[in-house]
């Protein structure tokens, strides 16, 4: 990962406070863990098979940090930041933009009866 990209990403990461009385093991630096996350996502290997000798920490450490960052909204903020940077540099071709509704949650779609039938659960009530 380039220093330039890391400088953009680092302020978006949540800061964790260490406990004073029982601090435990010192956590791995975020940059190393991010490299481990990117390695797993790029190669497609399972988290548990992340090689220890690469210095990214364990696969479970990388997975937990990915989960925590996802819950903190890091990826959404990074996506918005990168889109703004690319748009400001006129590097985006908006004429080829596509809006996909599969990422939008359906609100009150369908009736309860149709929902019950589609899940294969209990049969729909007899209305006759």
UniProtKB/TrEMBL annotation:
InterPro entries: IS402-like_dom, Transposase_6_like. It comes from the Bacteria. Keywords: Plasmid. Residues 1-79 form the Insertion element IS402-like domain. Residues 109-128 are annotated as: Disordered. This is Transposase. It comes from Streptomyces violaceusniger (strain Tu 4113).
């Amino acid at each position: 990962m380039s220093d330039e990209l890391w400088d953009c990403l680092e302020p978006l990461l949540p800061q964790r406070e260490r406990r004073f009385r029982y601090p435990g093991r010192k956590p791995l630096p975020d940059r190393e863990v991010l490299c481990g996350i990117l390695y797993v996502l790029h190669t497609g290997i399972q988290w548990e098979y992340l090689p220890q000798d690469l210095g990214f920490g364990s696969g479970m450490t990388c997975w937990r940090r990915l989960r925590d960052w996802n819950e903190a909204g890091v990826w959404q903020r990074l996506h918005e930041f990168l889109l703004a940077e690319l748009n400001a540099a006129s590097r985006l071709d908006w004429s080829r933009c596509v809006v996909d509704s599969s990422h939008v949650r359906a609100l009150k779609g369908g009736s309860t009866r149709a929902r019950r039938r589609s899940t294969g659960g209990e049969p729909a009530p007899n209305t006759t």
